[in-house]
């Protein structure tokens, strides 16, 4: 399932790490492997959201 790019930071309780990860993957697919400045900012926001939503066992790796 693909999500549109959001402009607000969702809390960990709003979306699962898997959902955020899918959005990260979709961003990379859309970019063709090279992120623009705007896409890089979106990527960084998504990574922070993913880290907040990820189970502790994934964050320790």
Q: Supply Rg.
A: 11 Å
Secondary structure tally, helices:
3
Class by SSE composition: mainly alpha
In percent, how helical is the residue content? 55-70%
- The SSE order reads HHH
**Approximately what portion of the residues adopt beta-strand conformation?**
under 5%
Largest beta-sheet details: none
Distance between the termini: 26 Å
Low-pLDDT runs of 5+ residues are none
Overall geometry: elongated
Number of strands: 0
Mean pLDDT: 82
Please explain how this structure is put together.
Helix 1 packs antiparallel against helix 2. Helix content is 59%, strand content 0%. It has 3 helices and no strands. The longest helix has 17 residues, at 37-53. By secondary structure, the chain is mainly alpha-helical. It has helices at 17-31, 37-53, 56-59.
Characteristics of this structure?
mainly alpha, 0% strand, 3 helices, 61 residues
Question: Quick summary of this structure?
Answer:
The protein has helices at 17-31, 37-53, 56-59.
Write the SSE topology:
Layout: H1 17-31, H2 37-53, H3 56-59
Helix pairs in contact: 1-2
């Amino acid at each position: 399932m693909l999500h549109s790019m959001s402009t607000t930071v969702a809390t960990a309780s709003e979306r699962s790490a898997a959902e955020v990860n899918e959005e990260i993957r979709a961003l990379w697919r859309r970019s063709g492997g090279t992120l623009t400045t705007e896409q890089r900012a979106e990527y960084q926001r998504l990574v922070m959201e993913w880290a907040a939503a990820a189970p502790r066992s994934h964050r320790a790796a």
